[in-house]
Amino acid sequence: MPAGFRGTTQVPKGSCVPYIEWRGNSCRVRWDTGRVNPDTGKKIYDSKSRSDWTEEEAYEYGLDRESDLRNGRMVARADGRILLKDWADLWIKSIDLDPTSVYDYRKRLRAQIIPEWGTTPLNEISTIKYNVWMKRLRANYSANYVRDIRILFGMLMDDAVAHRPPLLNISPVPKENRRRGRYVRPQREEKETVLTQDLHQLAENAREVWGFTGYVFMLTKAYTGMRLAEMFGLRREFVGPNWPECDEDKQRREKALKRYCGKDPLDVIRVQWQHKYRMDPDRPDDRGVPVLALPKYGSERSLVIPPFLAALHRELLDSHDSEWVFPAMGGGPLLRTDFNTYYWKPVRDGHKAREGRYARPELKPVAAFAGKRIHLLRHAHSPHLEEDGIADVAIEERLGHILQGVRGVYSDVTPAMERKIVQVLQARWEKAHDGEGEAN
To answer: Which end of the chain is more exposed for a tag (fewer CB within 10 A), N or C?
Structure first.
C-alpha cells in the first residue's frame, strides 16, 4: 500500500481483506466480522480509528482481526456492548441449579451487582474498576458476603468469555492466586473447645425450654453431627426400629438389613431428607414453599448411633404420633418456627428463673456456645471422633462429606469402623452421664 496514501481504499467485490480510510486526521481500518445482517443480507464490518497510525499499521491491525476470526478468537465489539443487566438476565435463565441457589444468585445480583454494573457494557468492565469495587465492598460487608459476590461476578464474566460467539476476550476478574497488595489472612469463625459436658448441658437446657423432644434433639445433633435442615426433615420411618425394615427402596433396604441387622446388629438412622423452603427465583419477596429435598450435596447416608440414643429415639416416638421425629412445641414442623429465637437462643444463653404461666427454672448459659450458631455442634462432632481414633474416611462419610484426593478414591467405611464409632460415642455418653469428672 503506497506510503502517504490518503484516499479511501475500496474493497473489491467478494474480497475479505481489511481496508483503510482517512477520517480527518485519523486513519480507520475496517474488517469483515464474518457475520451477515439478517434484515439486509449484507456483511457486517467492524472498525477502529487512531490518529497516530500509518496506513501500514492500520492494515496490519485489520489483518490481525481477520486472523482472529479465522481462528475462532474474534470478539465483535458489538457483542461485548451488551449491558451487564441484560447478560445477567440471560445467564440466570440458562443455568441449571436448585431453585434455592438461583434465588440466592438473584438476591446478590439485585443487591450489589446490578446497582454497580447494570448499565455498563461488558467490554467496558476493567480489572481496575473491578478492584476498586471489591475494595469498597470489603470495607462495608463481611468477608463471606464479599466472597459470595466475587464468585458470582466471576462466573458471569467467565461465561461471557466462554460464550459462543464470545462476548469478551478475557475476564476482567483477576484469579485469586495472582495476589496483589497486602496479604489478608482469611477470617475464620472463632471456636471454643467443646467438651462433651457442654453438649449435655445444652441438652438439659433444651429439656427445660422444649421438653423431652428438645433433650433428644440436642443429643441427636451432638452425637450424629447432622445439619439443622436434616434434623428438621428427620421422619419417623427413617429411625429405628422402623428403619431399615420399612424402607420402600428395595435395594437400599436389603443392603442395610444385611449390614446392620445381622447376628450382631447396630442401631442406625437414615439421613434421607432435609426440610427446607424452596424459593421461587421469580418471586424473591416470597418466603417459599416447604419441601423435602435431598440433603446438601446429595449426601443422603446411614448413621450408626450408640444404644443410649437409640433408646431415647424409641421413647420419643412412643410419646407422640407426629410424622416428624422432632415436632415443634406446637406440634407442627420445626421449619415453620423461628427456631433461632425461640429454641436455640434460650438453650444456648440461658435465662433467669421465672414464675407464673410460663414458669421456668434458671438456666445456666453454655459458655462454649456464647453467641454461636447451632451449626457448631456439627463442628464439634468431628474433633471428638478424631480424639477417639476414628478414621478420617468414616468421619467425613458420617458428616456427609467426600474425602478428597487419592485416599477418597480408594478408602471405604467398613462395618468395623462403624462399630468403633458406636463404642466411642456410647463411652462418651456414659462418662458424661454418670458424672465421672469432666468428659472431653
So the answer is: N
CA separation (Å) from 299 to 219, 224, 293, 328? 21, 14, 11, 25
pLDDT, one tens digit per residue, over 364-382 is 999 999 989 999 999 999 9
- Rounded to an integer, the average pLDDT of 248-268 is 91
Rounded Cα distance between 154 and 133, Å, is 13
Quick: pLDDT tens for 34-66.
777 778 888 878 888 888 888 888 888 888 877
